[in-house]
Design goal:
- This protein has about 500 residues and is of the alpha+beta class.
- The protein has one domain (about 35-505): Cytochrome p450.
- The protein has helices spanning about 5-10, 10-35, 65-75, 95-105, 115-120, 135-145, 150-155, 155-175, 180-200, 210-225, 230, 235-240, 245-270, 285-295, 300-330, 335-345, 355-360, 360-375, 405-410, 450-470, and strands spanning about 75-80, 85-90, 180, 385, 390, 395, 400-405, 470-475, 485, 490-495, 500-505.
- β9 and β10 (about 490-495) form a beta hairpin.
- α8 (about 155-175) runs antiparallel to α9 and α10 (about 210-225) crosses α13 (about 245-270).
- The radius of gyration is 26 Å and the shape is globular.
- About 40% of the residues are buried.
- This is Cytochrome P450, E-class, group I.
- Its cofactor is heme.
Length: about 500
């Protein structure tokens, strides 16, 4: 160090070093400025970002709303940097159409996410698996074996029994004249329908709680939890140190043990059958066991991943949609009255509602579509990842770019929808709905949710019964009804919906 001091104190050297450092600083400032400039390098426009965190701070507690505000300023095709991950935000139906029609394969992959990797058996499910041959085969099984129209119709006895139980609970509570927690009932009923269809058993017991139900809710929380490795791939070890990976593994082991037990018990029961054939009341476990016997490549891990996929994809989304539907009807008495009149006219003096009755309820279907439009259960569709570099909207999108489609923003676009913030079911009476581009509640393209029919039938049947058997009274004014929301795997009401039921006699 002593030998270096004379050199360090040389005035000309100091000046040279200062000039060099200043030049270097200017160079990096110019480079960063260019990279942050709108539309630079023919990439999509980007909001300015901070060092290290990028644009993470701009997401807020309601990312779908924050991203729409940013898209209004920077465009419907917007590039952000969430930590170290380049992320494309698409907020236009026209751009979604371009992506799906011209580049669907390029946009069909999924990013590697820590929670999905652990909880879904190395992403052996359908929703989060990588695009490829396994995904195609697994999706085929879901569409043809689990979620076909024939299968949906076979499960009607489950829907009927669970909805009848729900109506009886409301009827018993109505005797007191006190408000009931409709949100709680609209969570338990769809969950029990889906659980019985998938596993052959109810998630919720008579007290409204169950071990598996609680574990499932924890898994849904895990899927939405912040993972350092998802935004900073080189820092995945931080998730281990802070206990996040340990929690995921603990929940996974509990889930895995439970599913193994269900499958093995069913396998033993199947072997003890005289002919081993599948009965008309077979649930998803029975069906997958039969498929496994026919197609040896389907392992037990594949089965468990698919079963979990079906449960996570169908529970909270159905209950959230049902809750928002009733919230909007209570907030709009005119629409409530019109929907009830239709349902009661179609059903007449019958003691129960048949699926054939639902097919005649055109206005109810419009009400459901309008609920989907204003309150998509997943306002940001599951993330995709580009497999190669591609051009969209005249902009270059690099390979390995994470992609979010903001369905919530698209479905409130004033350029597409008249009076987009208002609940007007009549807009769908003369409009043919394209579930690929107009309503994105079930996704779009190759990655579209295969459970569209299954989900729609459940929501329609629950809504029809609630509207037929009861009138509903709020404690306050309809316009004062709280519409606050909580962002999660699905967007739900922040505060439960409490309302007074008044039994109706046909």
């Amino acid at each position: 160090m002593a030998l270096m001091l004379p050199l360090l104190l040389n005035p000309s050297l100091v000046v040279s070093v200062c000039v060099f450092l200043a030049s270097l600083l200017i160079f990096f400032v110019i480079r960063i400025t260019r990279s942050l400039s709108v539309g630079g390098n023919n990439f999509a426009p980007s909001p300015p970002r901070l060092p290290l965190i990028g644009n993470l701070h701009q997401l807020g507690t309601h990312p779908h709303r924050s991203l729409r505000a940013l898209s209004n300023e920077y465009g419907a095709l917007m590039l952000m940097h969430l930590g170290r991950v380049p992320t494309l935000i698409i907020s236009s139906a026209d751009l979604v159409k371009e992506v799906i029609q011209n580049h669907d394969i390029v946009f069909s992959d999924r990013p590697d996410m820590t929670a999905c990797e652990i909880l879904f058996y190395g992403r052996k499910d359908v929703a989060f698996s990588s695009y490829g041959e396994y995904w195609r085969q697994a999706r085929k099984i879901c569409i043809l074996e689990l979620l076909s129209l024939k299968r949906v119709q076979q499960f009607h006895f489950v829907r009927e029994e669970e909805v009848t139980l729900c109506m009886n609970k409301i009827r018993n509570a109505a005797r007191s004249g006190e408000p009931v927690n409709l949100s709680e009932l609209l969570l338990a009923t769809p969950n029990n329908i889906i659980s019985r269809c998938i596993l052959g058993q109810r998630v919720e017991d008579e007290s409204g709680r169950s071990w598996f139900g609680e574990l499932s809710r924890q898994i849904m929380i895990d899927l939405m939890a912040f993972s350092m490795g998802d935004f900073y791939p080189s820092l995945r070890w931080v998730d281990v140190l802070r206990g996040f990976v340990g929690r995921l593994n603990s929940n996974f082991r509990a889930l895995d043990t439970f599913l193994d037990q269900v499958i093995e018990e069913r396998r033993a029961a199947t072997k003890s059958d005289v002919d081993g054939t599948e009965n008309v009341k077979a649930d998803f476990v029975d069906i997958l066991l039969r498929v496994q016997r026919e197609e040896k490549k389907l392992t037990q891990d594949h089965m468990k991943a698919i079963l979990l996929d079906m449960f996570v994809g169908g529970t909270d989304t159905t209950s959230a949609s049902s809750e928002w539907l009733m919230t909007e009807l209570l907030r709009n008495p005119r629409v409530m009255k019109k929907a009830q009149e239709e349902v009661r006219k179609v059903v007449g003096n019958k003691k129960k509602i048949e699926m054939s009755d639902i097919n005649k309820m055109d206005y109810l279907k419009c009400v459901i579509k309008e609920t989907f439009r204003l309150h998509p259960s997943a306002p940001l569709l599951l993330p995709r990842e580009t497999s190669t570099s591609v051009k969209v909207g005249g902009r270059q999108i690099p390979a390995k770019t994470r992609v979010f489609i903001n369905a919530w923003a698209i479905q409130r676009d004033p350029n597409v929808w008249e009076r987009p913030e208002e609940f007007i079911p009549e807009r769908f009476e003369k409009k043919t709905v394209d579930f690929n581009f107009d309503l994105l509640v079930f996704g779009c393209g190759r990655r579209k949710c295969p459970g569209l029919t299954f989900g729609m039938v459940n929501i329609e049947y629950i809504a029809a019964n609630i509207l037929f058997w009861f009138d509903w009274k709020l404690s306050g004014k309809p316009e004062d009804l709280d519409m606050s929301e909580v962002y999660g795997l699905s967007v739900t009401k922040k505060n439960a919906l409490h309302v007074v039921p008044i039994p109706y006699s046909p």
